[in-house]
Amino acid sequence: MTAAALCEMLNLIPLAGMEGKNKEVTGGYIGDLLSWVMGRCKEGDAWITVMGNRNAVAVALLRDVSCIILCEDAELDADARTKADEEGIFIVRSSLPAYELAIRLSALLK
C-alpha cells in the first residue's frame, strides 16, 4: 500500500512532503532516538515518532522511509516542514499513541 493509502485508512492528517505520498509502505518502525532509528529502521518503513524536527527528516531521507507518522499530536516545526517539502518526505500526524498506531499498521500490512 502507498503512504497516501495508509494515511487515508488510519485517518492521518497530512502535514508536509506531499511529493512522497506514493512511496510503498512495507513495514513499520517506532522510535524517537534518532541514532537508534538510523541504525535500525528499514527502507519502506512507516516511521512512528514524536520527533518533528529537521534531524528526523534527515534520518527519514537517509533510511528512505515511506513516511513519518507523528503520534500523540506531536508538532512538526517549520524548518522540518520546509525540508520535508524539499525532499519529498511525507509527514502525517495522529492523536493516537505510538503503540495503537503500530497495532493498526500491523493489521493493515498483514
Average residue-wise pLDDT: 98
| CATH topology annotation | Udp-n-acetylmuramoylalanyl-d-glutamate--2,6- Diaminopimelate Ligase, Chain: A, domain 1
Radius of gyration: 12 Å
CATH class: Alpha Beta
CA-CA gap between termini: 11 Å
Poorly predicted runs: none
Q: What global shape is seen? A: globular
Q: Approximately how much beta-strand content do the residues carry?
A: 15-25%
Give a short account of the largest sheet.
5 strands, mixed
DSSP strand tally: 5
- CATH superfamily membership, which one? HprK N-terminal domain-like
What would you call the structural class? alpha/beta
Annotated CATH architecture: 3-Layer(aba) Sandwich
Query: In the residues, how many domains can be counted?
Result: 1
What string gives the helices and strands in order?
HEEHEHEHEH
| H/I helix tally | 5
Strand order of the largest sheet: 1-5-4-3-2
- The amount of helix comes to 40-55%
Describe this structure in words.
Helix 3 (54-63) runs parallel beside helix 4. The protein contains five helices and five strands. The chain has one domain (3-109): 3-Layer(aba) Sandwich (Udp-n-acetylmuramoylalanyl-d-glutamate--2,6- Diaminopimelate Ligase, Chain: A, domain 1). The model has no long low-confidence stretch (mean pLDDT 98). It has helices at 3-9, 34-40, 54-63, 78-87, 98-109, and strands at 13-16, 27-30, 45-49, 67-70, 91-93. Strands 1-5-4-3-2 form a five-stranded mixed sheet. Helices cover 42% and strands 18% of the residues. With 110 residues, the chain is of the alpha/beta class.
